[in-house]
Write a structure and sequence with these properties.
Number of helices: 2
Oligomer: single chain
Largest sheet: 7 strands, antiparallel
Strand order of the largest sheet: 11-10-9-7-6-5-12
Shape: rod-shaped
Helix content: 10-25%
Radius of gyration: 71 Å
Number of strands: 12
Mean pLDDT: 73
Organism: Zopfia rhizophila CBS 207.26
Strand content: 5-15%
Structural class: alpha+beta
Subcellular location: Membrane
Protein name: Mid2 domain-containing protein
InterPro entries: Immunoregulatory_rcpt-like (IPR051694)
Keywords: Membrane, Transmembrane, Transmembrane helix
Order of helices and strands: EEEEEEEEEEEEHH
Amino acid sequence: MSQCYGTIQGKIKLLSTRKPCGPTNATVPVVPCCNADDTCLAHGICHYDTRSIEGGSGYYVAACTDPNYKDKNCRQLCTSQARTDISYNSNLSRWQCCGADSDKNANCDNATNDGFDVPAPTLLQTYWPTIRATSIPTPNPTSSPQQSSPPGLSTSAAGGIGAGVAVGVLALVGLGIFFLLRRRRQHDRERQLGNTTFPHQSSVNPQYASVSQDYKGDVSSQYGANAYDAPQPRHELSQMTSPVEVAGNSAHSPPPAVLLGSGSHPGSPQELPAGEAPRATSSSPRSPPAETR
């Protein structure tokens, strides 16, 4: 820690009770000095209010860390006096050096005419609240201002943010599962529709197809290769005479006998000779022949 120096009666002396009002560095090599636990004020003035000095006013001229006492922070005030105590004269609106009595105590009640002009005590800016036994840092003019980090989130706020993030993640997972199941059901439905046989589509059960082939084979073996496919011949009935009505009898006569001729197929009707009417047998008396219509 830097040592402090002051001028007493024109001589530079080491003042061991004084402490620097901040650290020294290459940019600020010299700083003012005040007693420990006193307040450093602007314009090289120190203030004390936790102690009392006989004949003092509570203010005194600050020392400095320059051994030669030539720096601008070393105020050339009351340097010819035996003490560094000062007091503010409100009538003159200026500071005055208190000097010392015969016992070398402060004599601020009968201050000297040696004085200087700086703002009143109420207008002096505080350079540093109190001076400690250790060095007190001061702002470095060349250093870039440090940005204070933003205050951290409270525990409740952090918990709320975590819960919100968890709910969002669960919602996204649920939506993903929903769309996956929906897509799977749609795929299964399309596959079922693709395997369905509609009424307009021709489909033959294999077991019935085999029966049909067996039946066709049996017919072919009995009646020939073309028996199954060849259509049966149709016979036309020859023109027959109109039916005969028998008078006096409500019963119809039996159908005429079917004559089989040579070379005819069974069941084929034969034609009667022209002009010959069919004969009918009946148990009733013969009636006159009916008139042909």
